[in-house]
Write a structure and sequence with these properties.
The chain is mainly alpha-helical. The protein has helices spanning 6-18, 34-47, 60-67, 71-89, 104-124, and strands at residues 24-25, 51-52, 95-97, 100-102. Helices cover 60% and strands 8% of the residues. Strands 1-2 form a two-stranded parallel sheet. The N and C termini lie far apart (34 Å).
Length: 125
Amino acid sequence: MRLPVLTSLGLCLLAARAENIDILDGVYLDLNDEDGFRDSCLQGLEFGFDGKTLIHPKQLATANEIFAPSPSELEFAARIIDAFREAEQAGKGVVLLDGKLIENLHVENARRLVTLSEAIGAMDD
């Protein structure tokens, strides 16, 4: 846990979200500690970071695995986008999807996930 810098990380995350820009978590320096790197990536994802700054190619697969949206997340994101588009065409500003209220902020996040997945896929090609 990075408790001493948690407030600073939170402020950086808030600033990035307010400006609609991506934000990457800092580097993990121990190249031989794969479990520690994985834990650091998971923690960064839980904090809200969009990815991780990497210092070695061997970190790429783990970072992509953790930060890339899962197929089920992408499928739900597509459903959110479609449902909201239909609601807007009907003159509504919100829609229920699977019993959950969906509004513009959810659509923005869904679009961000799709864009992130496309960017990661382009790098894998």
